[in-house]
Design a protein that fits this description.
The complex is a heterodimer of chains A (about 220) and B (about 475). Chain A is of the alpha/beta class. Helix content of chain A is about 35%, strand content about 30%. Chain A has a single domain, classed as Rossmann fold. In chain A, strand 4 and strand 5 form a beta hairpin. Chain A is globular, with a radius of gyration of 17 Å. Chain B has about 475 residues and is α+β, with helices and mostly antiparallel strands. Chain B has 2 domains: about 220 residues, no CATH class; about 200 residues, no CATH class. Helices cover about 55% and strands about 15% of the residues of chain B. In chain B, the strands form 2 sheets. In chain B, strands 1, 3, 4, 5, 6, 7, 8, 9, 10, 11, 13 and 14 form a 12-stranded mixed β-sheet that branches. In chain B, strands 2-12 form a two-stranded antiparallel sheet. In chain B, a hairpin with a 2-residue loop joins strand 6 and strand 7. Classes of the chains: A alpha/beta (about 220), B alpha+beta (about 475).
């Protein structure tokens, strides 16, 4: 389902050339919950950016359902991000002046879905992730960290993506809330057969996933 | 909620900043609209003034004056050259003279003094209280003292013409009989109803002028005393009976359009050289509208300047906003927004600012357009108008009445140029909205371009 071959990302930092991702190979089946652990600066977030086509690899290939995304044009990459990928960020990254439900509706707006369809889907997902009705119309600043991350997960799921890429999804949460978020992601993966790749340095999370990779100095161990 | 609504809502994320931007833009848009209103009002006034002057060129012999007499008369040959000039659509020729009543007192300072001075047995219909005038102007009227005349008649103007529709710029209307054929030397004459009444003339009556007998073909009515004291004959008739073959004392050339008036005046001057004084009203009109043209320039530059200022303000604001929202733009791209949609969103935000600014600007413009326009015209024209009035050429001779009226007309135009009403029309509202749209598009273009360049990986950067 997700196949990464010899993926490398280099960039220049001043006069130095930094190899953030060094010849990474991965093969993840559909519906698997995968964790990538590693220290800060090991290249795991860069790898996630490459998988989500937020950044371009220096070399190597990423195949989703047999299609190499490194050969896609810019507008095709937009489609790829919109329809195949859902992102969950460490700092939630909700749009501050939109309500919870509007944040969830947003990716569907980019897909030209009707207002009713967007709203019904968003409310359904917010129910699924445990955001109560009275909180659905609150702006992010009026929600707790755990609630914001639930909204972010609902937003990531709204276009029914094949893969969810989560960058330290529990990093800003206390351990109980973090576990709740992890369980939520885990349940969704099983229920919707969504492939989930989580980047974390929380070893307790890594131990509960279907597959765990350790990343060090840009390489997977 | 769609992209446009998203952009509109984003405009109010920071209420204080949004209000400040709207007020600043409002002032700039108000200035641009006021300048546009001023431009339109002043331009309309200039067109009114220019269209009121008529597209005629007056041609007189150099140094001509009715009292100094014809020194260098024009000729029909010269004027035939003028008729051939480009843009000249017609030339009316005149030979003007004065006839003394044979019984009038010779010591009075009226009338023609040349060797060919003509006489007539007609009495002028113009009556004046000589005693009243003489008490005021005793030296002028009474040569060497003596008593006032008892059988005085004003000299009568005789005009040989190719155009019987006007006398010295005043329209006449034939009320009985028929018009004369201006191409023939047939001794037929048109007289005013006052002249006919004074001298008991009817259609077919005859009287003497110079040494010839003229026959009344028609009687006309005219509003001016100058015209009432004038008899009209064809140009060939006057040239024949006054023994001035081929002589013309003045002519009026008609130009095909006002825009060609200035160049055609110059062409006629060049054709006739130093033998003629060629004048058109365009010079006086240009002097009169000169301050308005200055206002027009001020309005044009201010309009362009304020539109540019508006665009620069919105550009800087939008660039600042885009820089502030780099991360958010990255997030939008990460969750599937295209560059185009993000650009539209920022354009929508910029358009929200400019529409609100346009509303504020329109309110200010409605209130301020007329006073500002009047202040501009008043300040710019106060010195120029008085100067242009002094610069009017002194008119001469038989056309004094006409020029007097013309000067009077220009006096009223000069005074009237302050009477400008600047109003905000529907078309202006559309222009205002278009200007706002242009400001928004130009102002948000750079911001949109910067937004498009932002990488979606910005979303991954920690705050």
């Amino acid at each position: 389902m997700l196949k990464v071959t010899n993926l490398t990302k280099e960039y220049n930092s001043g006069d130095n050339k930094v190899i953030a991702v060094k010849g990474v190979n991965l093969d993840i089946a559909e519906g698997k919950f995968v964790s990538i652990i590693g220290k800060s600066g090991s290249g795991k977030t860069t790898l996630l950016s490459l998988l989500g086509s937020l950044d371009k690899a220096t070399s190597g290939h990423i195949e989703i359902d047999g299609k190499d995304i490194s050969s896609l044009k810019n507008n095709e990459l937009v489609q790829y991000r919109r329809n195949k990928i859902g992102f969950v960020f460490q700092s939630y990254n909700l749009i501050s002046n939109l309500t919870a439900v509007e944040n969830v509706m947003l990716p569907m707006l980019f897909n030209h879905a009707s207002v009713d369809k967007r709203k019904n889907r968003a409310l359904e997902l917010l129910e699924q992730v445990g955001i109560s009705k009275e909180k659905q119309n609150r702006k992010p600043s009026k929600l707790s960290g755990g609630e914001q991350q639930r909204v972010a997960i609902a937003r990531a799921l709204v276009n029914s993506p094949k893969i969810i890429l989560a960058d330290e999804p529990t990093g800003n949460l206390d351990s109980d809330t973090g576990e709740m978020i992890f369980n939520l992601l885990h349940d969704l993966a099983k229920k919707n057969k969504t492939t989930i790749v989580v980047v974390t340095h929380d070893l307790s999370i890594a131990g509960k996933t279907d597959m765990a990779f350790k990343m060090s100095d840009g390489s997977l161990a | 909620m769609n992209t446009i609504m998203l952009g509109a809502r984003n405009a109010f994320r920071n209420t204080t900043r949004a209000i400040s931007i709207v007020i600043i833009l409002g002032l700039v848009i108000a200035l641009s609209m006021i300048m546009l209103v001023s431009y339109q009002a002043v331009n309309t006034k200039i067109k009114d003034v220019m269209s009121s002057i008529g597209n005629t060129v007056t041609i007189k012999p150099a140094g001509f004056s009715s009292f100094s007499q014809v020194n260098n008369a024009l000729s029909t040959t010269q004027l035939s050259q003028v008729k051939r000039l480009k843009n000249v659509v017609g030339v009316n020729e005149y030979l003007t003279d004065r006839l003394k009543n044979t019984s009038s007192q010779s010591q009075l300072g009226f009338g023609r003094t040349n060797k060919n001075a003509g006489n007539t047995n007609l009495q002028s219909p113009i009556t004046i209280n000589l005693n009243k005038i003489a008490n005021k102007h005793r030296r002028f009227f009474i040569a060497g003292g003596g008593s006032l005349p008892t059988s005085f008649s004003f000299p009568i103007s005789i005009i040989g013409t190719t155009n019987t529709s006007q006398i010295s710029g005043a329209n006449i209307k034939i009320v009985s009989g028929s018009d004369i054929n201006t191409n023939l030397s047939n001794n037929q004459v048109l007289v005013s109803s006052q002249m006919a009444s004074k001298n008991n003339l009817h259609i077919g009556s005859t009287f003497t002028a110079y040494t010839s007998t003229l026959k009344v073909a028609g009687i006309f009515s005219a509003a001016t005393r100058t015209a009432q004291n004038t008899i009209l004959v064809s140009l060939p008739t006057e040239q024949s009976i006054s023994n001035q073959s081929g002589v013309v004392t003045s002519a009026t050339a008609y130009v095909d359009s006002l825009s060609n008036l200035s160049s055609t005046t110059s062409a006629i001057e060049k054709e006739l050289g130093s033998s003629a004084d060629v004048t058109s009203s365009v010079t006086q009109a240009n002097n009169t509208v000169k301050p308005l043209n200055e206002v027009l320039s001020i309005a044009s530059y201010s309009l362009i300047g304020s539109v540019i200022a508006g665009a620069v303000i919105i550009l800087l604001v939008m660039v600042m906003i885009v820089r502030e929202r780099r991360r958010e733009i990255g997030i939008l791209k990460a969750i599937g927004a295209s560059n185009l949609r993000i650009i539209f969103q920022f354009m929508s935000e910029a358009f929200t600012f400019t529409i609100l600014g346009a509303v504020v600007g329109l309110i200010i413009a409605v209130i301020g357009a007329t006073p500002v326009t009047k202040a501009l015209v008043s300040n710019t024209s106060s010195s120029n108008v008085s100067r242009s009035n002094f610069q009017r050429p002194t008119p001469g001779g038989g056309f004094r009445g006409g020029f007097a009226r013309q000067n009077s007309a220009f006096g009223s135009i000069s005074a009237n140029i302050h009477n400008i009403h600047a109003s905000v029309s529907w078309s202006l509202l559309i222009y205002g909205l278009l200007a706002a749209l242009i400001i928004a598009i130009i102002g948000s273009a750079l911001a949109g371009w910067i937004a498009a360049k932002i990488s979606p990986s910005e979303a991954m950067k920690s705050e």
